[in-house]
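ugh finaly. both done.
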Amino acid sequence: MINTLLLPELREMLAENDVAGLADFCEAMHPARAAEFMEGLTAEETWGVLKAADPDRRVSIFEYLDQQRQVDILETGDPAETSKLITIMAPDDRVDLLKQVEDDTVETLLPLVPTEERRDIARLSQYPEGTAGSLMTTSVARLPESVTVGEAIDELARQTKNHETIYYIYIVDDDNHLRGLISARQLLTHLGTPDERVADIMERDLVTVEATDDQEAVAARVADYNFLAIPVVDHEHHLVGIITHDDVIDVLREEAEEDAYRAGGIAPLEETYLNTPIHTLLWKRGVWLAILLAASFLTVIALQSFDEMLAVVKWIAFFLPLIVSCGGNSGGQSATLIITSLTSGDLQLNDWPRVLLRELTMGLALGTALGAIAYCGALFGVEGPTAVEKLVVPITLVFVVTCGTIVGGALPLIFRRIGLDPALMSNPFVAGIIDITGIVIYMTVCVLMLKQLADPFSG
């Protein structure tokens, strides 16, 4: 509501070219709030507001705009002005943004960017998406091994404006090999000994990642150690950049979104839901639904093979939905637990024997408990079969639920082993597999038990 009320005022200031008023607006609140208040403006109007702010504030607000708005500003704004924005942006953020901009616009902008920044953009653009190199920023606070505490403080005072964070200061040798790390807190605690060498107090046992490492592994490592940033090195241990905690948060959120999409049987979206074209949504949803539909035909075929028995012993069909739903639900639970454990790093592939044993135990226990409940319900809620005949329900549930837990636990491990995302082993696929096996198990138990009691096909 506040956003809506403020929009007419912003448009009025734009119409009157009230530069001072627009500048006050940009300075008066947190950049994120300023970006939020401008959501109703067009890209041209947004850029008109931003131009009134000083360059650093302009970049701060710009980075909080949604990506599509950022792209529109670069593609519609004056290249001579927007190139200055690109120059000041954090190295990793500007590379990510330029990858979304039309090639013609990028070709116009880059020659207007200073040579050093242009080389940095080219260097970072070489790293494939999903790697540590594509996440890192080259804006790093670094010091040579030979400096003293006093010299380090003076040097950091000169570097502060140019770096995204200076909480961690990385110590390198003359060839830029990473030798150690010292925090800003450590430097401040040694102010009383300004002549002490930084090399004597720095940490040497560092946790690093290589530029080619997968971003999920990087995010997990940062989360495990609670780092604010982690250094990125090349294969020769040269310091090439750092990955800050805010980029790690973005990765974790992105991976969580992808897993959520796949758990629902949907290919991950590249844009927001509302910005994704209808035909793209139809394709991403339709492909998986078609695969699941094809798998469902196997269920039809499985049922068809028992049509004679279903025609004679009609009450068997009463319990069929109960059987397959319990098996599918138990398998879905197991798959969710294993996928989550694999993602968090709590579970490794070589733990598979323990996983299968635990899921076997859980399946037998859950199947027995659910079977007892289902048998009580069948006794008092279903007419037709005798109490002895109804024993097919709890017996089948023990087998089907156990099968569900084992399948749900094993398939994500198999997917990870062959190099695929275990989230692909989503609940719909587990449920589809259990539907087929559940029907076969149920019908087999029915045939064996009922033939022992009395042959229903005689006469």
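ok and the 2nd:
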Amino acid sequence: MRAVKFSLTVIIALLVTTPCLFSISNTFIDARVSTYNAHFVVGTGDGRKLLYGFPNSIWSSKTTVRADSFNYIYGNDGTVTELPHDVGNTINHSAFSVNNMDVRQILSIVNNQRTNRNPDTIKIQYIVKNNDTINHDLGLRVQLDTQLGTNDESPIMVQNYGRVLNDTQWVGDPMPEAWQTLDDYYNPQLKAEGGINYGTATKPDRLIVGLWARMDAVGNEWTYTLNPAAITDTAVAIFWDPVTYTPGQQRSFTTYYGLPDSSGAELDLVKSVDLAGAEYGNTLSYTLTYSNTGTGTLGGCFIWDTLPWNTTFLDASAGYVYDSVQRLIYWNVGDISTPNVPENKWFRVIINMYQGTEVRNQAQTQYTDSYWNDLEVRNSNEVITIITQTPTASPTVTFTQTITVTLTATPTPIPFEFEHKGPFPNPAIDKANVGFWLSKNAEVDLIIYTVSGEVVNKISGNFTRGNNVIPWECKNEAGNKVAAGVYIYSIEAVTESKERKRFFGKIGVIK
């Protein structure tokens, strides 16, 4: 459930009857800036959220100015010296002053810092100048309240670290290059990326990924104590620690947030079928086209597909392994470098007589992303072949000269099937993958218990029909490695129509 967020700023916003904001936008990215305090939110050009509150509830992402050991919220405190205003439709300026220190915020649309292909990124820049006759100390913290689409608990990954499950901090060297957030960890449709240590970004002194409610609490703006509890409502804080400014001295600080375009390893998996319409007994030929379109090496890649329930396997391209019990076909394609030329795998099936009114399925892939240091599971597009033939059994059976009975077969509806494939490897050292197969889309919960019944961790996600895996990194909810031993788990799938199936199993953990 999305966390409820509340502040005095919200009350003020509710009193305003018309939205008071500026927008710098194009077809890729859209940043909205409040006219009264210069707080901002970011979304996509087609209206999807990349920060909480987009497009017009602007308050939960904010910048803290640490001036002479006191905290000031940019735009709320101090003296406004320049109201927010747009320069064209791509830049927004504002400025405020505290202790005779001028802090200027410049938001601008720039090309992607990795590929330079598309203007899909917001450059967040602060220019600080000491206008006083004496020295002053000043630091900055940019707090971004992430929300990808409808998911306010959007998972966050950090370069060379992987998925962040609890409050985590990076200080000094080595500072990661980037962080990324997704609308869904297992089947992402929307991604956003923050660039903190590449391009022209100013390397921060600290990076914290944590729970927004803790990060936003009064007293935690600068001195923040990491909490071992699991993160739900995610947020990111980027710090540049206070430094001394002599009279007239000026410094600039930059970070980026926008669409990733291409970062890390990214397997593009497209599935196609040769027939959009077919009859019972026809052969369907499926092609799986794949390539690494990202900027990192893709390791240990498996591509697999589950045969549609109403088909029979015929043959496949070289190197396949077919499990007739699980109705699973897969290829171990190994490591894929970048850039990669698209390659293909194919297989063929025969449509079973009088089963169903359509044939549909979806391929999946699993690989390790060397850039994000993370196991990624991705789905292809779904393909559908409509069965155009009316299923009628023959011949007509005549009992008398005047009564004729025609036997007509009724198409079989797709049943809900949930096949539990068990964990692999088992026992595990660092990671166990719990595999399963679904005949329908479902929400799946994996709960790990101690042998005495205490909950160790819970991992949930929305999965599509076909083969899937949920990786458990042998950690508890606090993100700490569990002790060696035997653990019990339950895995339960629930469809939209509330069909429900559940299995239990054991996972051994060794050191």
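summary for the 2nd one i guess: Residues 264-388 form a domain with the Immunoglobulin-like fold (CATH 2.60.40.740).
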